[in-house]
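Q&A log
Question type: sequence-to-structure
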Amino acid sequence: MFIFPWMDKYSVHVDSIDAQHQKLVELLNNLASAMSSGKGNLVLETTLNELIDYTLYHFGDEEIYFSRINYPQAEDHLLEHRKLIEKVSQFKLDFEAKKVGLSIELMRFLKEWLINHISGTDKQLGMMLNKAGIK
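Response status: OK
Response body:
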């Protein structure tokens, strides 16, 4: 089950960033598939851990690009990154506290965040990177 099918319109035209975004989308879609087969709670902890680890890796890569091009929106972009990490960390704490309905809440949040972040903030970054010759 795909709740977030990857489409070309989400491309930021930087291969490494697009590949990492696709991995984040894959994590979300895997959670949706597990939920549709009644196994959401069984994979939620693993998904949360993978999401936190991979998001940190992805953000680290983006932040290297910030310094390479002296990205003028770096501070705002970093703030968005920190807010996502805080929110996903809160989801993990809620999971550990056995909060009910967390899988659905997490899926909705991640889908909305990814679409908005990729389509807005990361598209701007992609344009700046492309202007600097990074593809």
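Response note: The domain at 12-131 is CATH 1.20.120.50 (Four Helix Bundle (Hemerythrin (Met), subunit A)).
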